[in-house]
Amino acid sequence: MTSRRAWLLNLDAEEELFRGSSYGSPLRAVSERPDLVSRLGGLVPEGDIVLGSPRDRADGCRGLAWAPTPRARDALVRSGASAPGAPAAATLQRAMSRRFCDEVGLTLPGALLTTNAGAALGRLQEPTPSGRWLLRRSWGFAGRGRLVAEAGAPVRDNARGFVERAVADGGVLVEPWVERRGDFSLHGWLGDDGALVRGEVCESSVNRGGAWQRSARAHMDALSATERQALATSLAETARALASLGYFGPFGVDAFRYAWGAETRFNPRCDVNPRYSMGWAVGMGDRRPDLER
Prior knowledge:
This protein has helices at 13-19, 28-32, 70-79, 89-96, 98-105, 117-123, 157-168, 225-245, 280-284, and strands at residues 5-8, 49-50, 62-65, 112-114, 132-137, 146-150, 172-176, 180-190, 196-198, 202-206, 212-217, 249-260, 263-273. The protein has three domains: 5-86, no CATH class; 92-105 and 179-291, 2-Layer Sandwich (D-amino Acid Aminotransferase, Chain A, domain 1); 112-176, Dna Ligase, domain 1, CATH 3.30.1490. By secondary structure, the chain is of the alpha+beta class. The N and C termini lie close together (8 Å).
């Protein structure tokens, strides 16, 4: 029988992995936004505990974390729960970087991830169908760490400063800004033996800043057969690459349909999320290896 579970929802896990000693508490995200738990699409089963304070106790519970970072695991143990199995912290950090997505393969035309500020600023001088570029730092979440810049125009001080800071912080991704015409995701669970349990395609709602709003299972006609196959291939490619790093656990890939001049195209991998994500439980449904002992 499965024992009672305790969850630590460190939704800002990227901050711990990339900020290190300047990061605060892994309990902060839920303590500041307790409403988020109700928006996770059934990720936390009824009756499970969600830790929201260092004073909360979970004695004898099986510990689970949004991302099993060192501080999240330590906090679970201090509460009396067990520490979840976890890839090495260095593996988590590498997998959560946009550099990993670059290594698996960027799928948007003209996209460039670089640690060379001159190369990034030079790319901004090239034309795009929309006349704009999107700058993103090498790591981030919930739509954070991004800036839109005009293509072919004199580089503004804010864009130059963004590039320089991002490069110093690990790299900058420069990609053409496009009008999105549909956002999608596909999730999975990667066993420590490399076995993949795949979920169903979700359709996502995001705000203008790229932050998630809600997810629902996608209707069969929401994507063409070609788009569905491209997304399935993207998930399989990502799973193999994650397994080669030594990663195991929940993950997902984000994708979108977009305008490219007069054409409509599909980007099957704009982000990789090697952790739980807001729509993960919606996509996985009752396929929950994470809940099994």
